[in-house]
């Protein structure tokens, strides 16, 4: 029956000029039909109350719900229809497979969406290229990677304008690519009118990672049926560590252009303090997430995306590690080597931002905003209303 319904839905989509569902999308639609009849997990996260507002699940609905899912695993461990049951309901895994497809489908420019499918190789090549570039440049300036101490003067190795010329276009392209991709996603899911209350709620849900608490505050599931908040905590270390490092760079930019203060900055200066605290967070968070990734239940998530997940975690970790090492030994003769390695890792991170795991935060934030808007609208089904 569900197979016939899927064929009918695809025929209707083609008649309307829409793309038919892919096998992954069809599987999510099948499982959500079962979940919609059961509703045992309705209080777990935003996916399930959002699901109850629909009787059918088209392409846009499936993309929206897949990105609303935080892959915490709570519903899988609670589900009476999970494998080995013949219904084989595994919402976290099915949603993860569609999310990976979503990132590729909405990538800009579209031709680069293929980078998601071999993201581990993409990251490795970007890292190798970044490291080689800066090591060669450092040798070209100094004749060697070891030199007399330069009192932490990075610009004696790489002039400020050169760094801006190299990093600014890549960063701006990443912002443009992610922005255009999520804009297309936003238009396809037909979000409705955003209000101040909806934006505030969605922002708080993003900043608190609300839906990594399992819906009951005790946490989610990792390797077994036990609840844990560690995944949420390590995500917080990672997110806020990243934001503090970004803030450090932003403050240093203001120092340079507005106040005329050039690096190196004192250890007690605001850019260094922000960067140090953020860097520590970016050591703890990615290390913890990598540990959890290794221990994750094999039925959670999409195994094909593990190289992308782990590659992104590694880039964040080594960006922080090399940055802190550079800070610690910036007054030594090894500064050029440490600076070249750090900038190479940062370059790899920037190059892969629009086509790697970083995208999940952008798309998930958009999905959370749609849910905050949607829940304030009357349900045409008169089901699942607050």
Automatic annotation (TrEMBL):
Superkingdom of origin: Bacteria
Keyword list, A-Z: Membrane, Transmembrane, Transmembrane helix
Keyword Transmembrane helix: yes
Residue stretches spanning the membrane: 121-142, 162-182, 237-258, 270-292, 312-329, 335-355
InterPro entries: Citrate_utilization_prot_B, NarG-like_sf
Cross-referenced NCBIfam families: CitB (TIGR02484), PRK15033.1 (NF011607)
Protein name: Tricarballylate utilization protein B
């Amino acid at each position: 029956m569900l197979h016939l319904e899927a064929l009918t839905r695809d025929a209707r989509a083609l008649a309307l000029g829409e793309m038919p569902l892919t096998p992954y999308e069809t599987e999510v639609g099948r499982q959500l039909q079962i979940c919609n009849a059961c509703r045992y997990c309705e209080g777990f996260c935003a996916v399930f109350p959002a699901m109850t507002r629909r009787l059918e699940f088209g392409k846009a609905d499936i993309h929206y719900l897949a990105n609303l899912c935080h892959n915490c695993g709570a519903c899988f461990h609670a589900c009476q229809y999970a494998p080995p049951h013949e219904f084989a309901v595994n919402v976290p895994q099915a949603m993860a497979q569609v999310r990976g497809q979503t990132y590729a489908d909405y990538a800009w420019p579209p031709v680069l969406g293929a980078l998601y499918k071999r993201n581990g190789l993409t990251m490795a090549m970007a890292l190798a290229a970044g490291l080689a570039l800066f090591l060669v440049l450092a040798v070209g300036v100094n004749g060697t990677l070891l030199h007399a101490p330069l009192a932490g003067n990075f610009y004696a190795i790489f002039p400020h304008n050169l760094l801006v010329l190299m990093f600014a276009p890549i960063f701006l392209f990443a912002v443009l690519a992610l922005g255009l991709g999520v804009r297309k996603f936003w238009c396809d899911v037909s979000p409705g009118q955003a209000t101040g209350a909806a934006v505030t709620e969605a922002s708080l849900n993003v900043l608190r990672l609300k839906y990594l608490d399992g819906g009951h505050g005790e946490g989610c599931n990792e390797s077994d049926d036990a609840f844990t908040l560690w995944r949420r905590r390590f995500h917080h270390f990672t997110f806020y560590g990243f934001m503090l490092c970004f803030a450090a760079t932003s403050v240093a930019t203001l120092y340079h252009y507005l106040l005329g203060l050039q690096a190196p900055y004192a250890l007690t200066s605001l850019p260094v303090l922000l960067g140090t605290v953020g860097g520590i967070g970016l050591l703890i968070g990615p290390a913890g997430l990598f540990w959890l990734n290794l221990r994750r239940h094999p039925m959670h998530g999409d195994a094909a995306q593990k190289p992308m997940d782990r590659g992104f975690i590694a880039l964040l970790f080594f960006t922080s590690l090399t940055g802190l090492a550079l800070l610690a030994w910036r007054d030594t003769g090894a500064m050029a080597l440490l600076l070249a390695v750090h900038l190479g890792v940062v370059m790899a991170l920037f190059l892969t931002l629009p086509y790697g795991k970083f995208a999940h935060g952008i798309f998930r934030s958009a999905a959370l905003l749609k849910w905050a808007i949607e829940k304030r609208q009357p349900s045409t089904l008169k089901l699942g209303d607050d």
